[in-house]
Write a structure and sequence with these properties.
- 49% of the residues lie in helices and 14% in strands.
- It has helices spanning 2-19, 44-52, 56-68, 71-76, 94-107, 136-154, 170-183, 209-219, 240-261, 272-277, 280-290, 326-338, 353-366, 404-410, 413-421, 433-437, 444-466, 484-494, 496-505, 510-529, 537-561; strands at residues 40-42, 77-83, 87-92, 120-124, 158-165, 195-196, 199-203, 223-225, 230-232, 268-271, 294-297, 300-303, 314-317, 343-349, 376-380, 383-387, 390-392, 429-432.
- The strands form six sheets. A five-stranded parallel beta sheet has the order 10-5-4-14-15.
- Helix 18 runs antiparallel to helix 20 (510-529) and helix 19 runs antiparallel to helix 20.
């Protein structure tokens, strides 16, 4: 059906060029808002009415007559209706819709993929400080980043997944001091345990049980391995630097385990500390100074960020000589550009909203050829977790938040990924643990996976009964697929490639979850309307081809989300 659509669009484009030569009128189809109105809708007549100085319905009638006279429309189109002020509604013949079954079965896992475009995109996500376990917010970011990466891959991009480790700054010092106190036998609440004097209700140090685990491992002189390092503790509770290095390596190892439990893999782990040790931060600051984009005031160095649309200028270097947190971000993004990534997407929490203007301002002020609006940002809200009807806020392991691993252990990787992707990133989301484990149609991931498993069960029964081969279904006669439910299911399958393209362009993986739920609903309706394993061999094979194609698209869509497509449930 995709080839049918392209042929129909080409014929439409030719007729539009005949009507308005050189005007470049665009040939495009939309999905009718009401399914009974047809399969494709076209608004070209209303767009051309003014330049042609005709009533839109007159233009539409003329287009209808011309299109129905073309061989391609005669072959694939049942009728064209004119509605309202000049809408052109196209109704396809069953044979046109049936083509999608062949296209899906021929393409398999590549159905919906576009040709390689020789372009690279870097998607940076999670990027958690190595100061504790990954929390549920990191989980939402991980799901969004991985799904957006997969979406870009379907559109022909070469995708680079990157994790930026914030392994420098005050939080690392806090981690090291917390671990050192635990190693010495102290605990939260002891007189020596620090609190934030400006906010006594907030503990200045980390209180979770994971700090105890680090301290005990340090005293035992353990060796830990992370993605890029191996470190052995010396057990000396007075050796602050050794404790710091061990604690960072330990938590990087722990976060690796969290990511593995989520089946998430990165191409590169980029260290914030490397920006300092390599001189990148200093070079960036010096370039901004040389470009005349900074000034000294009140003992601090300021960036003229208001020159680039920020609401106020920003401090770059404080009076004590330390840099504010956006400065290494500017240096980091210059490295992304220099590494050849002309498109970059950052997945971050909405609390990072304020950094967007200043990072982009710094990149423009550096004047290294980076275009305005670089990089893209996808911001997400945090996640509330509800279990047993009550909000869960504390994990014993983390001390003050629910961890990603908690959520996976309570439910499953598939449920966590699907649920965290089922809303727009910038909308509030409540993760209902009880719903995530429910085996009913109210659970969206179960509903979609069950549709796939249900099809696999039908195919399995056919194979066991007659030794059938799914590969043989690619060339069957599809003419028996003329019922309304079968027609609706095929139209739904045909929407998949355009949905992928739109979701990638909009960096909107939630669109995939909506589509999969609609596709599962179409399949369940079809299954309830028509028995598949009937006695008539031709009808049976046509229906098997349709459900096999449906299973393939369900599998492909779930793969984009990083969710499995089980054959049995």
């Amino acid at each position: 059906m995709l080839s049918v659509k392209q042929d129909l669009l080409a014929a439409l484009a030719a007729e539009l060029e005949t009507l308005t030569p050189g005007a470049g009128a665009k040939a495009a189809f939309e999905s009718p808002k009401v399914a009974s109105h047809g399969d494709f809708a076209c608004t070209a007549a209303m767009q051309l009415a003014k330049p042609l100085k005709l009533n839109p319905r007159q233009v539409a009638e003329g287009l209808r007559t011309a299109l129905l006279a073309t061989p391609v429309y005669q072959r694939w189109v049942a009728d064209i209706d004119i509605a309202g002020p000049g809408f052109i509604n196209i109704r396809l013949k069953p044979a046109a819709k049936q083509e999608i079954v062949r296209e899906v079965l021929a393409a398999g896992e590549r159905f919906g993929f576009q040709n390689p475009r020789n372009a690279r995109v870097l998607v940076e996500f999670v990027s958690a400080n190595p100061t504790g376990p990954l929390h549920v917010g990191h989980g939402r970011q991980a799901a969004i980043g991985d799904a957006i990466s997969n979406l870009f891959a379907t559109q022909g991009w070469s995708v680079h997944r990157e994790f930026y480790y914030n392994d420098a700054g005050v939080q690392i010092q806090t981690l090291a001091h917390s671990t050192q106190l635990r190693a010495k036998g102290f605990k939260p609440g002891d007189e020596c345990w620090p609190i934030d004097p400006e906010n006594p209700a907030s503990k200045a140090f980390y209180n979770g049980d994971y700090i105890v685990d680090i301290a005990e491992a340090f005293k035992a002189k353990a060796t830990v391995k992370a993605d890029d390092r191996e470190f052995t503790a010396n057990g000396d509770v007075e050796d602050y630097d050794n404790i710091r290095q061990f604690a960072v390596a330990y938590l990087r190892n722990e976060q690796d385990k969290d990511l593995q439990a989520f089946n998430l893999h990165f191409d590169e782990y980029y260290l914030e500390s490397s920006l300092y040790t390599s001189g990148r931060v200093e070079q960036t600051v010096n370039k901004l100074i040389a470009n005349g984009k900074t000034y000294e005031q009140d003992g601090a160095l300021w960036l003229k960020s208001t020159d680039y649309g920020d609401d106020k200028d920003r401090v770059m270097r404080k009076g004590d000589g330390s840099y504010t947190y956006f400065v290494p971000d500017v240096a980091y993004h210059i490295t992304k550009w220099e590494r050849g990534f002309t498109k970059v997407v950052n997945i971050q929490g909405t609390d990072h909203h304020g950094t967007i203007a200043r990072v982009r301002a710094g990149l423009q002020a550096a004047d290294v050829g980076i275009p305005q609006g670089y990089p893209d940002y996808v911001l997400h809200t945090m996640v509330r977790v509800v279990k047993g009807g009550e909000e869960v806020k504390i994990s014993k392991r983390a001390g003050s938040y629910v961890t990603l691993r908690d959520l996976i252990e309570w439910t499953s990787k598939d449920a966590v990924r699907f649920f965290l992707l089922s809303r727009k990133p910038d909308t509030e989301y409540t993760f209902d643990v009880d719903l995530a484990v429910a085996q009913n149609n109210d659970n969206p991931v179960y509903y979609v996976q069950y549709a796939h498993a249900r099809i696999c069960s039908v195919l399995r029964a056919w194979q066991e009964a007659s030794g059938g081969d799914v590969a043989s279904l690619k060339e069957v006669d599809l003419s028996p697929l003329d019922g309304p439910q079968a027609q609706a299911l095929m139209l739904q399958l045909a929407k998949y490639p355009d949905m992928l393209t739109a979701a990638a362009e909009g960096e909107a993986p939630h669109d995939v979850t909506f589509y999969l739920r609609d596709l599962a609903a179409s399949y369940h309706s079809y299954y309830d309307a028509e028995r598949i394993l009937v006695d008539d061999e031709a009808v049976k094979r046509a229906r098997l081809a349709l459900v096999a194609a449906t299973a393939q698209v369900l599998h492909n869509g779930l793969a984009v989300l990083g969710v499995s497509a089980p054959a049995r449930m």
